[in-house]
Amino acid sequence: MNGKGVCWTNRNLDEGKRKNILEERLASLCKKAYELSILCDVKVSLISFSHGETDIFTWPSLTETNEIVNNYLAYPEKQRQYKLVEHDAYLQSILNYREKEIRELENMVEDQEMKDLFNQLAEGRKKFDEIDVCDIKGLLNLFKDKRAKLDQMEMQLSGNVANEIDANDNNAGEQNDGHPN
């Protein structure tokens, strides 16, 4: 049964209703196959048949379906396997990317939790004896990162100050050209 309480294998429907349902679903499936072929720039074909019947439904047409199947079968077995491996590698790359995104999000959440914990400690809402070893390690990492940022800012500021002093010295020399005012 699906979520709507309709049994997919209901044999009690009369043949006319079953054919109508099949036609509707095949039309929907053809539309999705067409959209897939456009969206992914791939060849798509559908074949549908019922046991005991001689009618075969093909989409987009019997000749195009035969051509698609024959082109696929014309590939050597190794190339067909290689295409599957490429697809597997592609899916693995997507999985790796998503795992990387998840790790980055977890790190962001952990950083924010440590900032919140630090603020709670600074405001007196939490005491040091209430936190565990993992939180202490997280706070130490937060302090280390903040210290590295402060050191970097200090280097930039000292470089900017030195540049300003040099610029002031050069401007002072240009203003005093040796002639009295």
From TrEMBL:
Residues 95-156 form a coiled coil. It is found in: Nucleus. It comes from the Eukaryota. Residues 2-50 form the MADS-box domain. One of its GO terms (cellular component) is nucleus. InterPro entries: MADS-box/MEF2_TF (IPR050142), TF_MADSbox (IPR002100), TF_MADSbox_sf (IPR036879). Gene3D superfamilies: Transcription factor, MADS-box (3.40.1810.10). Keywords: Coiled coil, DNA-binding, Nucleus, Transcription, Transcription regulation. GO terms for molecular function: DNA binding; protein dimerization activity. PANTHER family: SERUM RESPONSE FACTOR HOMOLOG. This is MADS-box domain-containing protein. It comes from Solanum bulbocastanum (Wild potato).
